[in-house]
Amino acid sequence: MRKLVSLVLPVYDEADALDRLLERLVAVIASLGQFRFEVVFVNDGSRDGTLELLVRKSRELPFLRVVDLSRNFGKEAALSAGICEARGDAVIPLDADLQDPPEIIGKMLEKWEEGAEVVLARRANRDSDNLLKRLTAKWFYRVHNSMAEPAIPENVGDFRLLDRQVVDVLVRLSENRRFMKGLFAWVGFRTETVDFEREPRHGGRTKFSGWRLWNLALEGITSFSTVPLRTWTYFGIVVALLALSYGLWLVMRTLILGVDLPGYASLMTAILFLGGVQLVGIGILGEYVGRTYMESKRRPPFVVRARYSAGAKSPASLRDAAAK
Ligand code: UDP
Ligand code: MG
User: Fold this and answer.
1) What are the extents of the domains in the chain?
2) CB contact at 8 A, 68 and 306
3) Does the pLDDT value for residue 202 go beyond 90?
4) What pLDDT is attached to residue 295?
5) pTM for this prediction
6) Domain 4-225+300-321 falls in which CATH fold?
7) What is the residue with the minimal CA distance to atom 22 of ligand 1?
8) Are 122 and 195 in contact (CB under 8 A)?
9) Dmax over Cα atoms in the chain, in whole Å?
């Protein structure tokens, strides 16, 4: 029996890129006849006709499956959904905008056949990103990896091959706020790398503004590190020691030189500084309390409205019931 390979693509308003994407996917699939393929599209609440287009295509292309989420859950959740739905012996997530060229899938499968359980696709250049994005990405990896265990590899996106064994572990992880890059690194397994040139986006526009990226970065660090919390302990100790020695010095001075009232400036500075420091500390605590709160609700990370394959529609609940 030929092995089954699942390609998983989260899509959010990607109607512009779909035709070219499918063309290239079909060519790649045709060139790799030693494997069977399924292509799982996860429609993450698109508003531009992406779903209709995909459903129409799924009638012509038997290997196409479409999972329709009930709203936009964000890329991390959509990717989780796709990985849960995939049935392949290997699962390869990729972006739908052709920034992850499907042509290197052959190389990834070769490494997999040689025994790798994870094959990372590493972008050899970041020319398709602007200077700001390149700099912030670099700093994100630096900060994240200095705080969090395990380190996440630089210049590697979600484009990678995951063996069935790895996927089974990922699916079992119970957290519902899922920072996929971190989870991918966390599961470990024997890892190989292939390099590729990242192309500019084909059609449509990026869904990740600066603010969204900033939040994703915070999500990543707070998911995988408690260093920001611990920092406050040390900072608190240092400030307390400084305050203590200043206090001692004040007492000594008063004893030797007598009472001396002026001190408005130093008092105000100390009060304002400490107030600010405490607020930042509480803010960081809040980040973690918030995370714990969200996790404690045990809500599922995504909700499926329906699934489509070879033109047939199955409501989510029916399939879920059948699977039990
Ligand atoms: N995406 C998604 N849900 C979202 C945002 C993005 O499924 O809420 C998908 C998007 O359709 C694309 C992939 O995630 O297939 C990567 O998004 P994008 O290309 O905008 O990110 P960038 O390459 O700019 O980092
Ligand atoms: Mg992109």
Assistant:
1) 4-225+300-321, 227-296
2) yes
3) no
4) 83
5) 0.79
6) Spore Coat Polysaccharide Biosynthesis Protein SpsA; Chain A (3.90.550)
7) 206
8) yes
9) 94
